[in-house]
Design brief:
The complex is a heterodimer. Chain A contains four helices and no strands. By secondary structure, chain A is mainly α. In chain A, helix 1 runs antiparallel to helix 2, helix 2 runs antiparallel to helix 4 and helix 3 crosses helix 4. The N and C termini of chain A lie far apart (about 75 Å). Chain B is α/β, with parallel strands linked by helices. Chain B has one domain: Spore Coat Polysaccharide Biosynthesis Protein SpsA, Chain A (Alpha-Beta Complex), CATH 3.90.550. Chain B is built from eight helices and seven strands. In chain B, helix 3 crosses helix 6. Classes of the chains: A mainly alpha, B alpha/beta. At the A-B interface, helix 4 of A face strand 3 and helix 3 of B.
């Protein structure tokens, strides 16, 4: 991985870090998810910064370029995250439905009294 | 005690007439307004119905489950679901009731037994679904997407807990749920008017719903119960 690519990774990570802090500060992002994103960002930065680790990992996986390893790792992370979000959304859909139905019934019974 | 459950989504032009017809038969009825943006709730109330109003649009299945929950909480032993768009003739309700009295926990009003017409491709899909469900349930059914039904205890309480919200889930999947619960399923022929307002779901969306349904049906036997 070239020095320029390294710098690009650092700059991008910095932007993402800043954006996440701002989102949490405004209450738009739950800390739980913020931690997830920060963890992923931190992992990418560490891999980009400590070249020997990245190279060792690449060699172990049989990948020639460190950049590819980084891309593959981030793709895997993202897939996991999206799956996690789909699961969270499925649960939320069910909860919203439960709450809405309960509310509607309570309201109707209140009115009938 | 029997409660007529009428799920309604933006049906202000027809829901009043449905409510009045049901009332004239002498049955209690509740209109579950599925987050309508028109005057459905007010019209239904004006016609004398009790209205359970969902704050957001959740789909027919959610509206039905809310209706079943309301029925169970208020001591009804049987629910009859009728569409709010005048497609179902309330005059057929006694036929559903008779089959329910004869011991069927889930009675499905079948329009095809009474010579209802639909488009060719739609008919083909409906027939395939009917065959699939019939084989699964062990009872010959020819209109598994009909929303004109009678549900009696103990199935009513079960449906109040577990009733799918997605399109086709509230009709086709519900039959399979009833069967797996151990309920008796039966069908009776009913007359249905051709749809007067609103359009049937069609095209890519319907195909998506169909795929979802097939996944649901194939995964159900190995599903982990909560």
């Amino acid at each position: 991985m070239t020095g320029r690519a390294q710098i690009a990774v650092f700059v991008l990570a910095g932007i993402v870090f800043f954006a996440i802090v701002v989102l949490v500060r405004r209450g738009r992002l739950k800390e739980r998810f913020a931690l997830l994103w920060l963890g992923i960002g931190f992992g990418v930065v560490v891999l980009a910064a400590v070249r020997p680790w990245l190279d060792a990992l690449s060699e172990f996986l049989g990948i020639q370029s460190g950049t590819t390893t980084l891309f593959a790792a981030s793709t895997l992370f993202l897939l996991g995250l999206v799956l996690h979000l789909s699961i969270a959304m499925s649960r939320l859909t069910e909860q919203v439905r439960d709450v809405a139905e309960a509310l509607a019934i309570l309201e109707a019974e209140q009115r009938g009294r | 005690m029997t409660l007529v459950v009428i799920p309604a989504f933006n049906e202000q032009s027809t829901v009043g007439e449905v409510v009045r017809t049901v009332a004239s038969i002498g049955l209690d009825c509740v209109v579950v307004d599925d987050g309508s943006t028109d005057d459905t709730a007010a019209v239904a109330r004006g016609a004398g119905a009790l209205v359970v109003r969902l704050p957001v649009n959740l789909g027919v299945g959610a509206a039905l489950r809310a209706g079943f929950r309301y029925a169970v909480r208020n001591g009804y032993r049987r629910a009859i679901q009728v569409d709010a768009d005048l497609q179902h003739d309330p005059g057929s309700i006694p036929d559903l009731v008779a089959a329910a009295d004869a011991g069927a926990h889930l009675v499905i009003g079948s329009r095809f037994a009474a010579g209802y017409e639909v488009g060719k491709s739609r008919r083909l899909v409906m027939r395939a679904l009917a065959r699939l469900v019939s084989r699964r349930v062990g009872v010959p059914l020819d209109d598994v997407t009909s929303g004109f039904r009678a549900i009696s205890e103990p199935l009513l309480s079960h449906f109040a807990n577990d009733y799918p919200a997605d399109f086709l889930g509230d009709t086709v999947e519900a039959i399979v749920i009833a069967h797996e619960f151990g309920a008796t399923v039966a069908q009776v022929p009913v007359t249905m008017a051709q749809r007067r307002v609103g359009a049937a779901t069609s095209g890519a969306r319907a195909f998506g719903h169909l795929l979802r349904l097939l996944l649901v049906l194939s995964i159900r036997p190995i599903r982990h119960r909560r």
